[in-house]
Structure formats: C-alpha cells, structure tokens
Amino acid sequence: MSYQYILFDLDGTLTDPGTGIINSVLHALRYFGIEGDPEFLRRFIGPPLIDSFMKYYGFDEMKAQAAVEYYREYYREEGIFENLLYPDIPELLQTLTEQGKQLALATSKPTTFARRILTHFQIDHYFAEELIIGSFLDGRRTAKAEVIAAALALLLPEKEQAVMVGDRKFDIEGAQANGIASIGVTYGYGELAEIELAGPTHIAHTVLDIKTLLEDPSLA
After folding, report:
1. What does CATH list as the number for 18-81?
2. Architecture of 5-16+83-219 per CATH?
3. Whole-structure pTM over 0.85, yes or no?
4. What is the mean pLDDT of residues 10-25?
5. CA 142 to chain centroid
6. 86 and 131 Cβ atoms separated by less than 8 Å
7. Which residues, 6 or more positions from 177, have their beta carbon under 8 angstroms from its beta carbon?
8. Residues 151/166, Cβ–Cβ less than 8 Å
9. What residues act catalytically?
C-alpha cells in the first residue's frame, strides 16, 4: 500500500538553508564575543535553535533565548533568503499532488518563516495553509514530535498511510513517537550514520528515491 499522507521537513529536505542559518548563528554569537566556525555550525541546521545554543556553547536558557532573538535579527531580513531549493523538489510535489496525496509541512522552524520560504520558492500552493505547521515564535512546539502530532491532528490519517520525510534523527524519532513511518533522506544535513541509528522505515539518497518510495514502499 502506498502512502497517502506525506509530511515533509523543510530545512535539509525541501530546501538547503545552510548559508542563511550559519550566517544567522554567526551574527548571534558575535553579540557574545564568540567567532563561530561555519563548518561546526552546520550542527545548528535541524534541531531547535535554543537547544543548540545550550548544547554547543553552554548557554543557560535565558542566554540561549537572547541568542535566538539576535539570530532572528539577521535571519528575518537576509538569512531566510540565503537558501536554495533542492533539484527535483517542485516536480516531486507536483507529481504527488496530481496523484491525490495529502501534503503537510512539519518543521521546527517558526511557521511564519516557513510560509515565507515556501512562497519565495513558489511551492506554497502544494500545501493547504493550515497544513504548513512549525513552531511558535515564543519557543513553543519546537520538538519535532509535537509538530508532527499537530499535523496528524488535522490530517486524521490511518497511521499506516502516513509518513514523515526528513533529513535528521529528530524527524525519524518524531515519526516513531507518533506511530507513523519515516523516510530518512541523506542529501540533507543528517549524516548517514545518524539516520541509520535512528531507525527510519526507509532511506532515500535522492529526491527521486523519495518519489519511488512514496509510490511503492515495497521497493525499499
């Protein structure tokens, strides 16, 4: 049986946001007298920002929240558009729509930013407005399991017909927490070892692999 309800991550799955996110983190760190290493800061792509500032720089929660605000100073004006759409994504979304699939966006990025990005790349029309689901600017609903749960509450799918597509362990673990399948993609920011260790239902190395798996999961 093919999947009917497809939840997509944004960063590292539909778009490559690396330059914008790294530049935004660099901007934030400079307020604290820290000059970050751009290669190291790739770790910030995917998880909630506040968690990454606390984990990688030892910030307490209040300092990490301040860092997120400095991050957004740069991101909302410049970083958000230092972003690239992965090849074949528009064609994938078009094909799935023509097949009658129900698509949702499930991202830890704030919903307001996610909508701007989808509109910028002219792929927003593939998602019903209420199914573009992210976190809140005040820090609520950043855990991927919570985001996926919010999407499923609107979709009301049969669990075996739903799948989460994402490039980090958080996407896979969030899908598992909600009892649905997952496709771990390797062309984004999660290393293959990370994805394999999380135990996705399927692994896709390219966008075309995603298309194949969504049409016929038995081919995995």
Report:
1. 1.10.150.240
2. 3-Layer(aba) Sandwich (3.40)
3. yes
4. 97
5. 11
6. no
7. 145, 148, 149
8. no
9. 9
